[in-house]
Specification:
Layout lengths: L11 E6 L8 E6 L6 E2 L6 E7 L5 E8 L4 E8 L4 E4 L8 E5 L5 E6 L13 E6 L5 E3 L7 E6 L6 E6 L6 E3 L1
Antiparallel strand pairs: 1-2, 2-3, 4-5, 5-6, 6-7, 8-9, 9-10, 10-11, 12-13, 13-14
Length: 171
């Protein structure tokens, strides 16, 4: 059995890189055969860990934005224009993955007291993709990272740190 749902052929690939003339890492797209490379972002920000929404209309990307002076995940339109941050400034959830219906995003974050939270480890958070609605999904006992939605959007797999031992397990 396949681990992911069967998807139509990819026409464009989204990636981050620092090309000649770039000061920061930027978002780029290219056709799946490697041709037609074009830069999406044209600002003074640094972008990493980008992913398409299921319908291809939006992008979630971990980014450093000079106006906030910090890292967080931002939602951009398909042309690279920043629409809004996933959450307020002060903490930086990363590794965003879209729900199959595109309504929610799961990301890893450590929301400490100065940011309005109580985390002592990295937890998984579910965000509404269109507004600042945040729900912590994990219990703050060990680090959790790299979430992936099931094809039907009802369950999530992720890596969980081993308690008292090095490494991670699939949960």
């Amino acid at each position: 059995t396949a681990l992911t749902r069967r998807e139509p052929p990819v026409s464009e690939v989204l990636f981050t890189t620092k090309r000649v003339g770039d000061y920061h890492y930027n978002l780029y797209v290219a056709r799946s055969d490697g041709t037609g490379v074009r830069r999406l972002t044209h600002d003074e920000c640094h972008y990493e860990e980008a992913s398409w929404s299921p319908d291809g209309s939006r992008i979630a990307a971990y980014s450093w934005q000079p106006e906030t002076g910090g890292w967080t995940t931002y939602i951009l339109d398909a042309n690279g224009t920043v629409l809004h941050s996933l959450c307020g400034p002060g903490w930086g959830p990363r590794g965003a993955t879209w729900s199959p219906d595109g309504k929610h995003i799961i990301a890893t974050g450590r929301r400490m007291p100065r940011q309005g939270g109580t985390d002592t480890t990295y937890n998984l958070y579910r965000f509404d993709a269109n507004q600042w609605e945040i729900h912590r999904l994990t219990d703050d006992t060990v680090d959790r990272r790299l979430a992936a939605w099931s094809p039907d959007g009802r369950t999530v797999a992720y890596l969980r740190a081993r308690s008292g031992a090095p490494g991670f397990d699939l949960a």
